[in-house]
Amino acid sequence: MAFPASFLDELTARNPIEDVVGQYVSLTRRGSNLFGLCPFHSEKTPSFSVAPDKGIYYCFGCHKGGGPVNFIMEIENLDYPDAVRFLAKRAGMEVPEDTEYRSTYRKQERLRALSKEAARFFRAQLFSPAGKEAQQYLLRRGVSSQTVARFGLGYAPDGWSSLLDTMQKSGYTKEELLDAGLVLQSKKGGYYDRFRNRLMFPIIDVRGNVIGFGGRVMDDSKPKYLNSPETIIFNKRKNLFALNVAKKSKAGMLILTEGYMDAIALHQYGFDCAVASLGTALTEEHAQLLAKYTQQVVLTYDGDEAGQNATRRAIPMLERAGLQVKILRMKGAKDPDEFLKKNGADAFRALLQKSENQAEYRLQSLKNKYDLHDDAQRVSFLREAAELISTFSTVVERDVYGRRAAEAAGVTPEAMKQEVSNAYRRRIAREKKRQERVDLDLNAQQQPKEKGIHYDNLRSAMAEEQLLAQVLKDPVLLPEVKLLPEQFSSPLLGRAFSLLLRCQQEGRPVSLASLEGDFTPEEMNHLSSVARRRDALISEQAISDCCNVIREAYGRSVRTGEDALRAMQQQFQHKKGYGG
């Protein structure tokens, strides 16, 4: 364990789970537990629970769980050591420096400081004689001085080592500049600036740290945008441009754009809820990040084919994150920046109010695929539209959009209603068969929900889960467990049991919160679900029954292994004798 156990125990004691979670979630007491709306996925009925006596949280909807450290890791998007430091600061504790994380943490802090210093350098260059072209470019694009200041825009001068030389004078090394993605190394071993003669956009995380940069050319040269590479402080799949500003918006939505300039233009025109992805397509991580700050996302991707394809890919990702998705269509402009300059804020606001929900958008996109004056294509459109509409969740939605499809194709609403009904029945039948296959597979039903965790011996694993749930509910029972960790069929559960034994031997709290540094967030999610088992009857007999099942399964596996080994030895001896 990287941090001293005594420090982690005190950290947990001084950060009660109900207090930590309560700063982010409105909780209501039900018996001994607290409940609220899950901060990790969108829901209307609270399924997020906090168990103060166990020091853990668990969501019965998305299955995330753990102790205070895991919660801060998830909610603040931090790694383990930074989450520990976050809670230590909250409790007024000093973090021990003799840990294996010290060098990594210091390196991260050093690179953040370097990135902030680089942003200041770029900003100074923008207002120097060297930045005259960049200033003129911003004037042509209509970017105000207030917007320049708000987003910390800057300019990378047209030199091979302008930033490199300045940062070295400030005490940073070439290797640090390379690690921060600010310089490149030539084949001959020399170093030179990555960003040259570009308008610079600092990328700032939700905590206000400069973690990377985007650089845009001011002419037609390629590449148009150049972004920082992945570093130990920058992951483009987990961050969004301008989210540090947009998260404070009271608009009740987030507007997702394709580019930095679109997001900046929207902010300048009063739409302070705009964000942009960082030179990459929307990812599942982006969707989860958005869901932490809003329940509704409006997509404003470009109207070209690439933009439409990006929209179609983004819709299901955002919906899986529990977000309500709307799509804004712009006529006479390729992007929000151009639309705002042509038509102004009021026109965009009106357009925003008329933005389509995903159902309208998908149906319209489907219409655009077909020539509805051709009978064969009309039939194809209606069949595909029926399949699409059959996936809509309510009868009302299916009726409304069925009528729209019928009107577009020139058929009666009754005919379309019948087609949708047939498609709906076919889909329900397919889903029923699929569910029947799942229901028949008891093993699949009881396997852990977390990907990457699998039980080879389900019967033993169920007993192991039951056993852990019991000792976590009443640690006094732990001495009654006469088992070795290696007798567990599940390596994860065996490791948890081993660490709980160690906690007891060292006089530490026997709790899941004591183990947070030893497991990944996914493993903690699963162990939290184990701890929340409601069928764990606390008794010495229940402990004994579980132990018997585990021993029996372990004995069979040992005998099976011995039989396999003997068979291999006999086969080897047979071959050896035959060869001799």
Describe the structure in your own words:
By secondary structure, the chain is an alpha+beta fold. Strands 1-2-3-4-5 form a five-stranded antiparallel β-sheet. Strands 13-12-14-15-16 form a five-stranded mixed β-sheet, sandwiched between helices. Helix 20 runs antiparallel to helix 23. The longest helix has 40 residues. The model has no long low-confidence stretch (mean pLDDT 87).
Strand content: 5-15%
Helical content band = 40-55%
Summarize model confidence as the mean pLDDT: 87
Outline type: globular
Report the count of strand segments. Answer: 16
User: Structural class, from helix and strand content?
Assistant: alpha+beta
Strand order, sheet with most strands: 1-2-3-4-5
For the CA atoms, what is the radius of gyration? 29 Å
Main sheet makeup: 5 strands, antiparallel
Oligomer: single chain
Number of helices: 23
C-alpha termini separation: 54 Å
Ranges where pLDDT stays below 50 over 5 or more residues in a row are: none
Subunit structure: Monomer. Interacts with DnaB.
Pfam families: DnaB_bind, DNAG_N, Toprim_2, Zn_ribbon_DnaG
Protein name: DNA primase
InterPro entries: DNA_helicase_N/primase_C (IPR016136), DNA_primase_core_N_sf (IPR037068), DNA_primase_DnaB-bd (IPR019475), DNA_primase_DnaG (IPR006295), DNA_primase_Znf_CHC2 (IPR036977), DnaG_bac (IPR030846), DNAG_N (IPR013264), DnaG_primase (IPR050219)
